[in-house]
Design a protein that fits this description.
By secondary structure, the protein is mainly beta. 10% of the residues lie in helices and 29% in strands. It has 5 helices and 18 strands. It has a two-stranded antiparallel ribbon with strand order 1-2. A two-stranded antiparallel ribbon has the order 3-4. Strands 5-6 form a two-stranded antiparallel ribbon. A hairpin with a 4-residue loop joins strand 5 and strand 6. About 19% of the residues have low confidence.
C-alpha cells in the first residue's frame, strides 16, 4: 500500500485507502468508531457504517424486520430469504427451494442449486458411446426351477462414456470440453452449474504464474494482486502495509 502513490494504510483498521478521499465509512465495523468518523453514520438495523444520508439498497438488508420497515420501496421474499425492490424478480441464485426454482421459466436447477442458464454458453461437448455387450463377466444372474429341470440365464452389459477434448485451446477456456483438463489448466475454472469451462476472474487468481497465464489479466507486483489488464489498481485492493 505504502509503495503506491496516493495510497495510505490505516494500522488500526488494517485497510489501505485513497489519501485524497480518506478512510471509507465501510471500513468501520464498530458503531462508536463509525459515529466518530467524519461523514459517517451507523445504521443499526443493518449493522453497517455508511456515508451520511446515503440510501440503503434493499439487497443490502438481510433482516426481514429491517426490510419490512422500508415497505415503501422494499419487500421480503421468504422463498429466497432476501430483501428486494418491490415488484422485482428474485435472482435465480437466491432461490433455495427446487420447486420454487423450477416454477420460473428463467431459472434452472442443477447440482442442488438454482441458477440463471443464460450465463451458460453451452460449450461443453460430451458424447456417450452406445452400450456394448461384453462376454466373460457377469452383471446379473438368475436361476428359475421348473419342475425337475432348471434353467440359468446370465446377462452382462458395459456402458462407457468419453468426453471430447481439445488438444490446443489457445488460451480460450471455453474451448476445453473436459472437466479434468479445465481444472488442470492455468487461468481456467470449471463451472459445475453450467457444466462448462470458463476463464477465471482476475481478482480470483492469487499467484503470479496463474495471473500471467490468464487471458485479460496482469500481475501488479507492487501489491501482489492480479488485476484486469490495463486497469488501475485501487488502494482498497491492497492488503499489505508496505
Amino acid at each position: 500500500c505504502g509503495s503506491v502513490g496516493g495510497c495510505e494504510f490505516d494500522t488500526s483498521l488494517f485497510v489501505c485507502y485513497n489519501s485524497s478521499e480518506g478512510v471509507p465509512c465501510s471500513a468501520y465495523f464498530d458503531e462508536t468508531a463509525c459515529s466518530g468518523a467524519s461523514g459517517c453514520e451507523y445504521v443499526s438495523d443493518i449493522f453497517s457504517c455508511r456515508d451520511i444520508g446515503s440510501e440503503v439498497a434493499c439487497d443490502e438488508i438481510f433482516d426481514q424486520t429491517a426490510c419490512e420497515s422500508r415497505g415503501d420501496r422494499c419487500e421480503y421474499d421468504s422463498n429466497g430469504f432476501l430483501c428486494k425492490d418491490i415488484g422485482s424478480m428474485t435472482p435465480c441464485g437466491k432461490l433455495f427451494d427446487q420447486t420454487a426454482c423450477e416454477s420460473r421459466v428463467d431459472c434452472a436447477y442443477n447440482n442442488g442449486q438454482c441458477f440463471d442458464p443464460s450465463v451458460c454458453s453451452g460449450s461443453m461437448n460430451t458424447t456417450t458411446t452406445p452400450a456394448t455387450v461384453t462376454t466373460g463377466s457377469s452383471f446379473s444372474t438368475s436361476t428359475v426351477s421348473l419342475s425337475s429341470s432348471s434353467s440359468s440365464t446370465t446377462m452382462s452389459t458395459t456402458t462407457s462414456s468419453t468426453t471430447t477434448m481439445s488438444e490446443d485451446v489457445g488460451g480460450n477456456c471455453s474451448l476445453i470440453t473436459s472437466e479434468t483438463q479445465c481444472s488442470s489448466t492455468a487461468g481456467c475454472t470449471f463451472d459445475f452449474l453450467c457444466r462448462e469451462c470458463k476463464g477465471a476472474l482476475c481478482s480470483s487468481v492469487f499467484d503470479e504464474a496463474g495471473c500471467v497465464g490468464t487471458s485479460g489479466c496482469e500481475w501488479f507486483s507492487g501489491g501482489n494482486v492480479c488485476v484486469d489488464e490495463g486497469s488501475s489498481v485501487l488502494c482498497t485492493q491492497l492488503f499489505d502495509e508496505t
